[in-house]
Amino acid sequence: MTTAADAFTALFDRMPALVRDAVGDLAADDLARRLDPDANTIAWLVWHLARVEDDHVSKAAEALGRDDLAEQAYVADGFADRFGLPFPTEAHGYGMSSEEVGQVRAPGDLLVAYYDAVHEKTGAFLGTLSDDDWERVVDTSWTPPVTLLARITSVANEVAQHVGQAAFVRGVIERS
């Protein structure tokens, strides 16, 4: 019988290849290219989707007492320093201004390495879950409080949307 954890693992296991396809061998200038003055770039989209997954999965792990998986790869694995962005380490892109979006510049190998680290941690977390965990509350700052099922569904949606947007931008860049 397939569990929710199995289904989410299968879904998240598709993302690294999609991230690689979106980033490909594009130069940093292309990864930072905007289709209009306020458009999101591939670099920002991939950084943001990785930050959201890293942040939200880490906080869910903490809420469930999985402290060994609660530290974000962005800090624990030194990615914040490697990116060298002018934002607090807890920033994950939500609510950023157009100017801030434009400040996210990174080489493709760094974007992919960060997503790979996040994906590995997400897989490890999903592997710890039982069927009883999905209805547990992981965030009380919303009304109604957010369950693990709602949070992981939201993260999967965010990652899929943004990797699709990054692939679209790549397609436009390749055809221009």
Structure description:
The protein is mainly alpha-helical and 176 residues long. The protein has helices at residues 4-12, 15-23, 28-31, 42-63, 73-76, 79-83, 98-102, 108-126, 148-175, and strands at 137-139, 146-147. The protein has a two-stranded antiparallel sheet with strand order 1-2.
Give me a quick take on this structure.
This protein has 176 residues and is mostly helical. It has helices spanning 4-12, 15-23, 28-31, 42-63, 73-76, 79-83, 98-102, 108-126, 148-175, and strands spanning 137-139, 146-147.
Features:
about 180 residues, mainly alpha, two-stranded antiparallel sheet, about 60% helix, globular
User: Whole-Å distance between the termini?
Assistant: 48 Å
Uncertain ranges = none
Instruction: Give a quick account of the main beta sheet: strands, pairing sense, barrel closure.
Output: 2 strands, antiparallel
CA-based gyration radius: 16 Å
**Proportion of strand residues:** under 5%
Order of helices and strands: HHHHHHHHEEH
Biggest sheet strand line-up: 1-2
How many helical stretches? 9
Output the structural class.
mainly alpha
